[in-house]
Specification:
- It is built from 13 helices and 11 strands.
- It has about 325 residues and is α/β, with parallel strands linked by helices.
- A 5-stranded parallel sheet has the order 4-3-5-7-11, sandwiched between helices. The protein has a two-stranded antiparallel ribbon with strand order 1-2.
- The protein is globular and about 65 Å long.
- Bound molecules: iron/sulfur cluster (3 copies).
- The site of one iron/sulfur cluster has 13 residues, from loops.
Length: about 325
């Protein structure tokens, strides 16, 4: 397909196990969707176009894959789309790190209302749910991934920048959004030159969210863990110092501090910052070093006040970035 003599890039979009907000993000590229339509030709998009799998072309230029790999159907979709795609992009925290569905890997085995791995479960209408895989995986733990666009969902600015870089090459230099200013130099330079960024690149920043947060750190002190509804104060002071579990110190920046700017703690949806080995361990170190007590019983009481430590610190990253957990069954390694 071409317009004005320039071949348009073919695009596939698919969500495995996820809420589809990432997919809506592609649909909702605001005014940009018209521009996207000039450069990209969606040839496989089951959710929007109703494209059946039999109609998946033998070769697709770019595939945006959202959602985690939770079922055998997801795994098959990942393999088929990898086989047919020149460029495979993990869009959103679920695809990039395992995301919220990855919390299932923290659940103790047994006692679950879900069917066992490999078994189908019939719903009220008698329709069979897809068989579960032994564990939830990120896309890169199943197949090779070329690019990552993190976030839950990714910010429109970053999603659009990735679309410019991968779909509209050569047309994009004059249209770089402010998001490109947050990207590593090698990616921004590639976009400006109209060439593909290095394979494996993540469309996000290189520092931690704290590095771009404008909140003021006054003193290193953590007295008691509070939930956001207990502590919201628009004082401009660091939220962690106000007792909120803000994960900005462990999280990769790129969103521009969306949550912290609005007074809500960072929950880590961009995954770990490049310099961080394990996001949960980093948070334990960051918070532990600010405990306002040296007494064991007081510290124990403080720790007991944290709700669901593992679920909080690995909310988006359990399958691929938790060094304390053994690699999930079926994981091939890799990740953002
Ligand atoms: S990353 Fe977040 S927004 Fe995207 S599919 Fe997963 S849960 Fe939904
Ligand atoms: S911990 Fe959170 S609120 Fe504090 S500086 Fe870092 S990102 Fe900002
Ligand atoms: S502040 Fe944290 S949780 Fe909020 S969008 Fe940015 S990375 Fe995600």
């Amino acid at each position: 397909v071409s317009q004005g003599g320039r071949p348009r890039t073919t695009l596939a979009v698919h969500t495995a196990t996820g809420c589809r907000a990432c997919e809506h993000g592609v649909l909702d590229l605001d005014q940009e969707v018209t521009a996207l339509g000039r450069f990209a030709d969606p040839v496989f998009w089951p959710y929007v176009l109703g494209t059946p799998w039999e109609a998946l072309p033998r070769e697709v230029d770019v595939t945006f894959f959202a959602g985690a790999v939770r079922t055998e159907t997801d795994r098959e979709a990942a393999r088929r789309l990898r086989d047919r795609s020149r460029i495979l992009v993990a869009v959103g925290a679920c695809a990039a790190f395992g995301g919220l569905p990855g919390l299932t890997n923290l659940a103790a085995s047994g006692g679950s209302a879900e069917p066992a791995a490999g078994e189908d479960a019939a719903g009220d209408d008698g329709a069979a749910a897809p068989a579960l895989a032994p564990a939830t995986l990120s896309l890169a733990q199943v197949v090779a991934v070329d690019y990552f666009v993190p976030g839950c969902p990714p910010t429109p600015a970053l999603l659009w920048t990735a679309a410019l870089a991968l779909l509209c090459r050569g047309e994009s230099a004059a249209r770089l959004s402010f998001a490109a200013g947050r990207l590593p130099e090698r990616i921004a330079e590639a976009i400006a030159a109209g060439v593909l960024p290095p394979r494996g690149s993540t469309f996000a920043g290189e520092r931690a969210v704290c590095g771009s947060c404008s909140r003021v750190k006054e003193e290193k002190r953590f007295e008691v863990c509070k939930r956001p509804f207990q502590a919201y104060q628009e004082t401009g002071r660091c939220l962690l110092e106000q007792g909120l579990v803000c994960q900005g110190v462990a999280t990769q920046e790129g969103c521009g501090g969306l949550c912290t700017g609005a007074g809500a703690p960072c929950r880590g949806c961009f995954g770990k910052a490049p310099a961080v080995f394990d996001p949960g361990a980093k948070m334990v170190a960051a918070i532990g070093s600010t405990f306002d007590s040296a007494k064991a019983d007081e510290i124990a009481e403080l720790v007991d006040g944290f709700p669901d430590l593992a679920g909080t610190f690995y909310r988006y990253t359990a399958p691929s970035q938790c060094a304390l957990l053994a690699p999930p069954p079926g994981a091939a390694g890799g990740g953002a």
